[in-house]
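Entry 12.
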Amino acid sequence: MSPGRLATPRELLRRYGLSARHSWGQNFLHEVRIHDAIVEAAGLGPGSRVVEIGAGLGTLTDRLLETGAEVWAIERDRDLCGVLRAELGARPGFRLREADAVKFDYSSARDEDRPRPPIIGNLPYQLTGPLLFALLAHDASTGPWIIMVQEEVADRLCAEPGSRTYGGVTAMLSRVRSIATVCRAPRGCFVPAPRVDSAVIRLDPLPSPRGEVADAEGYRVLVRTAFQRRRKVLSNALSALAPREQVLAWCAAAGVDPRIRPERLGPEEFAALQRAREQAGEDEEPSA
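Predicted 3D structure (tokens):
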């Protein structure tokens, strides 16, 4: 352990008489090289602000504070909040947010000097989907997301249209974010060790979306509906949203082949379908 740094997760658990909550998916990262890769990917320095999801025992928080950044550490486990206060409470820049990360207002971290602060976190496996959608709701006010997820999820999120692993969440996120792998994190990097390997990915905001839409929630509904029936051709997969004739009209307006499967479409094509859907809805509205 380097001078001034926290003890290892195993030592901290022993010191405070705690154990990981398996029902909450708690696995504490102890591998220093992974901590360093995350901090480097965040590009922090004095005057920066970063939001950390699931600060846990504070070992990554400690590394983030060493950069001189202000760290908003989100943690909902009261026992772990006690550890964070005891170990890091006196450190300049440490700001504990005792809250549920799924419900947290990430836009509250922005200000005039830091309009899009980065988000960092080791996401509990069972909450990965809800947390990604929570972050997506604050896309415009957050900077890069550097997050740890299950390796299989990382591969799906980095997949290209047409691949077997490409799915609806990727189509939703990749419309507004570029997605790349930072590093792999084998199960032995954690205490306790999970049953699967993990990976750190970085999701950077795009200068402009891959396909403009007026109704972002409508876009998500369209994509989710398509991938719920991904083995069907597009016209049949979207029949849950409208009669087949209407779906065919959307495809024609968007220049999309209704006979292909949803997994063949990128975010631009889904956005074109959503714009056609929006336009059809406007055309159907009665005039005043």
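Annotation: The chain has a mean pLDDT of 94. The first helix runs from residue 9 to 15.
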